[in-house]
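Weekly structure sync, notes
Attendees: PL (lead), two postdocs, one rotation student
Agenda item 3: pending single-chain targets
PL asked that the sequence for the first pending target be pasted directly into the notes so everyone works from the same version. It is reproduced below exactly as submitted, 406 residues in total.
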Amino acid sequence: MMSFDNTEFAFAYKSDKELKRAQFLFSSMGNSFLLHSGLKLMPIAMKFRFPFTKSLIRQTIFKQFVGGETLQQTAVVADKLGQYNVQVILDYGVEGGNDGETGYEQATQEFINVINYAATQTNIPFMSIKVTGIVRFELLEKIDSAMHSSETTLMKRYYKVISMLSIEEQDEWQRAVNRMIRICEIASRKNIGVLVDAEETWIQDPVDALTVLMMDTYNKEKAVVYNTIQLYRHDRLRFLKDCYEAATERQFILGAKLVRGAYMDKERRRAAELGYPSPIQPDKETCDHDYNDAVEFCIEQLQQIAVIIASHNERSNLYATQLLDEKAIPHNHPHIHFSQLYGMSDNITFNLARSGCSVSKYLPFGPIKDVVPYLLRRAQENSSVSGQTGRELGLIKREMDRRKIS
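Predicted structure, written out during the meeting:
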């Protein structure tokens, strides 16, 4: 019977000093005044280059949730995780280019560099990209808005809208498609999976369409490209099943990374401000139900679906392992993978690895100024997810007490 209670396994890779630092950080994040003050001050301090800001961030939240500023620094962390049979999903932390086409080209090359590096390592089977790193946000927004005008299938809506863009916009979009092709082409050759991150709902449709296009090309014989399905959206379970039908019809392997989601407060606030129905589930119970249904659906269709269960929810991870056991599917089946964010839920990751599951840490890297948006989301996530900070603190304290006794 799988258990996530063993803190000795969970924190074996952390020294006493690292545990104390994590305890201090999560305690600070559990203080609402300190957290909200920090969330407001961090972007301002970075923008105006306040003294010691980078050093403070580097030694606290950055060190907890990020592998390093460069691939070389991140390799140290990846190697350490590998010693405990934990794999790595590498993520170059760029979120939207500020330098136009030049910035998008630079990001594309960095993604390719990550793939080339991952291919030289034994425990880095995946890398992650954000489409907002290679194409203008406003263009995605325009395409998405136009795609809502029809009730036909995703791809029919996509082709119709693209044909209606101006010549300049069509050229701009084609450059983005070409960047995606370059990334997926080399990933396919190097046998590295490409995980396409989810975005806000108002730009997600063209991201979905682009990802399906890539899967239709590169997932014919193996899973190379994975889409991210945010189950805190009430329409995503149906979307997952529609994608499965498309994969069956087009004869490609559907790559699906199942997450709950990262933009809940922003999504609800925007829906209220603009007067449209919220895309977010009405409550946590409904979200959990859809998530576990999605896990079950994917495991039932493992011939056609390669799934990454990317969750910090102990019950969802436990449910997945129980389904595998019931169906006599090995925990390291090539189409099943588990993942948690670096710096969080070590009790899940390392106990899954101990039981023989294929499991990874999502490991971002990049200059501090580029990963600040990611760090802000991690801090907000720990405050908004019920009990997350308390759970992390409780596990750390239990391990520190265990070490004192032993």
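Discussion points:
- Residues 68-378 form a domain with the TIM Barrel fold (CATH 3.20.20.220).
- The chain has a mean pLDDT of 91.
Action: rotation student to compare against the earlier draft before next sync.
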